[in-house]
Design goal:
The chain is α/β, with parallel strands linked by helices and 391 residues long. The chain has three domains: 3-53, no CATH class; 80-107 and 209-388, Rossmann fold; 109-205, Rossmann fold (3-Layer(aba) Sandwich). The chain has helices spanning 37-47, 85-90, 109-122, 135-147, 162-170, 182-193, 207-213, 215-223, 240-254, 274-280, 307-316, 326-340, 346-360, 383-388; strands spanning 3-7, 13-14, 31-35, 80-82, 94-99, 127-131, 150-156, 174-178, 199-201, 231-235, 263-269, 320-324, 369-374. Helix 4 (135-147) runs parallel beside helix 5 and helix 9 packs across helix 11. The longest helix has 15 residues, at 240-254. The protein is globular, with a radius of gyration of 19 Å. It starts with a strand and ends with a helix.
Length: 391
C-alpha cells in the first residue's frame, strides 16, 4: 500500500480503501496522508532527474492517486517571479511571488482539486460536493466536468464573488445557497457526505486535496535552483493551504532532497483572524469567530477547519500568523499591480500585506529569501479593485 490515512490527534491509522472519512471516528481530529518515506524516497528522487515541465503530476511518485487515474487540466507549473521594485523599496535582497493565479481556473485550488477529483474517480464516486466562498466551487466544477461527475456547490447566501460563482455555473454545477456564512455551509456539507461512498467531499478537510496543494513547495524548490527559501508567506482562510505547503517542504527533507525547511508565516484579514488571535495569545485551540467580515472574501472564514494543522505548521517552522487590515490588503493589492505587474484578488494580496508588516515588525531580515504565495487572480473578485480604480 503506497499510503495510509493517519489522525493528526490520536495518530490512529486508517485503511484508505474504507468508505471515505474526513475526520477520525475516535477523536474527531482531521486526517493526513502518510507514506513509507524510506521506500518511497529513492523513487521520488529518481523521478526528479528528468528536467520535464513543472506540474502537479510531475510529483506523482509522492501523491496518493495513480497517475493512470489523473484528471488534469494542466495545473501547476505556475510562475515564480522575482521582485525588483518592491524588494528594493523594502531593502530586501530576494523577494519572489509564486503566482498560483495562473492555474487553469485562476486559483491555487486547482492544485488540490486535480488530486481530489482523481481520487473521486478512483473510488467510484459519481457526485462531488463542496462548500465554498468561491474559488473551491469554480475549481471543483471545472474538474468535475472534465471527469464527467455531477457537482453540487453549497455557498453562503450573498457572500460569493460573482466571477467565481459564474465559473461554477458555467461548468454545470448545481448551486445551493445556505443561510449563514461559509462555516455553516461546510458544516452542512460534512453532514451530507458522512458515511456515503458515492457523494465525495472535496473541501480542504479532505486530505487528498491537500496532497495536491503541497506540490507548490516542490515547485518553489525547483524554481529556486533546488534551494529552500528562508520564509514563505501564505494567506490563511480555512488554513488548508499553509498546512499543505509546510507538508511539502517537510517531505523534501524526509526524502533527503534538502536539509532545510522555511519559516511559514500565515496572514489573516483582521476581520477574520481567529488563528492569528490564537497564535498571538499562545493558545492551543482556536476560538471560532461567529461573524467574520473582510473585503478579502476568499479568507472570510471564522472557524478554519484546518486550524490545528496550521498552528503546528507555524510553530514547528518557527514562523508566525499575523493580521492585515482591509486597508492594508487593498493597499498591497495596488502595490503588487503597480510595482510588479501582478493583479491579485484581495485574499491573495494578503501575503504581500503580510510581507510589509513582517518587515516592519522585524520578523524578516534584509538578506532572507522570501516567497509570497499569490493564491488567486484579481479578476476572480473585482469589487475592491473596481473601487480603487474609480469604476
Amino acid at each position: 500500500m503506497k499510503h495510509r490515512l493517519q489522525c493528526i490527534g490520536c495518530s490512529r491509522i486508517f485503511n484508505p480503501a474504507q468508505i471515505p472519512i474526513y475526520a477520525c471516528p475516535a477523536c474527531g481530529d482531521l486526517l493526513h496522508i502518510v507514506y513509507n518515506y524510506d521506500s518511497l524516497g529513492r523513487k521520488f528522487r529518481e523521478s526528479l532527474h528528468s528536467p520535464g515541465p513543472l506540474s502537479v503530476w510531475r510529483y506523482h511518485r509522492i501523491l496518493p492517486v495513480s497517475l493512470a487515474n489523473a484528471i488534469s487540466i494542466a495545473e501547476g507549473g505556475t510562475g515564480l517571479s522575482k521582485s525588483e521594485r518592491l524588494a528594493r523599496s523594502l531593502r530586501m535582497s530576494e523577494v519572489y511571488f509564486k503566482n498560483d493565479g495562473q492555474n487553469p481556473t485562476g486559483s491555487f485550488k486547482d492544485r488540490g482539486m486535480t488530486v481530489a477529483i482523481s481520487r473521486a474517480v478512483e473510488i467510484g464516486a459519481d457526485t462531488v460536493l463542496c462548500a465554498s466562498t468561491g474559488n473551491t466551487s469554480a475549481s471543483m466544477a471545472a474538474y468535475a466536468a472534465k471527469a464527467g461527475l455531477k457537482a453540487i456547490v453549497l455557498i453562503p447566501k450573498g457572500k460569493i464573488a460573482m466571477g467565481k460563482l459564474l465559473q461554477a455555473m458555467v461548468h454545470g454545477s448545481k448551486i445551493c445557497q445556505v443561510e449563514g456564512n461559509f462555516d455553516k455551509a461546510l458544516e452542512r456539507a460534512r453532514k451530507m457526505t458522512s458515511g456515503r461512498r458515492g457523494l465525495y467531499l472535496v473541501n480542504s478537510i479532505n486530505p487528498y486535496r491537500l496532497e495536491g496543494q503541497k506540490t507548490l513547495a516542490f515547485e518553489v524548490w525547483e524554481q529556486l535552483g533546488r534551494r529552500i527559501p528562508d520564509v514563505v508567506i501564505v494567506p490563511v482562510g480555512n488554513a488548508g493551504n499553509i498546512s499543505a505547503i509546510w507538508k511539502g517542504f517537510q517531505e523534501l527533507r524526509r526524502t533527503r532532497l534538502t536539509a532545510r525547511v522555511p519559516r511559514m508565516i500565515g496572514v489573516q484579514a483582521s476581520g477574520a483572524a481567529p488563528l492569528a488571535d490564537a497564535y498571538a495569545k499562545n493558545r492551543q485551540k482556536v476560538i471560532p469567530w461567529p461573524n467574520p467580515e473582510t473585503i478579502a472574501s476568499a479568507i472570510r472564514i471564522g472557524a478554519p477547519a484546518s486550524w490545528k494543522k496550521a498552528l503546528r505548521a507555524v510553530r514547528e517552522s518557527r514562523g508566525a500568523i499575523i493580521k492585515a487590515s482591509d486597508e492594508e490588503i487593498t493597499a498591497a493589492q495596488r502595490l503588487l499591480a503597480n510595482h510588479e505587474g501582478i493583479f491579485a484578488e484581495p485574499a491573495s494580496a494578503a501575503s504581500v500585506a503580510g510581507l510589509l508588516k513582517a518587515k516592519k515588525v522585524r520578523l524578516l531580515t534584509p538578506r532572507e529569501t522570501v516567497v509570497c504565495v499569490i493564491t488567486g487572480h484579481g479578476l476572480k473578485d473585482q469589487k475592491a479593485a473596481a473601487a480603487f480604480a474609480g469604476l
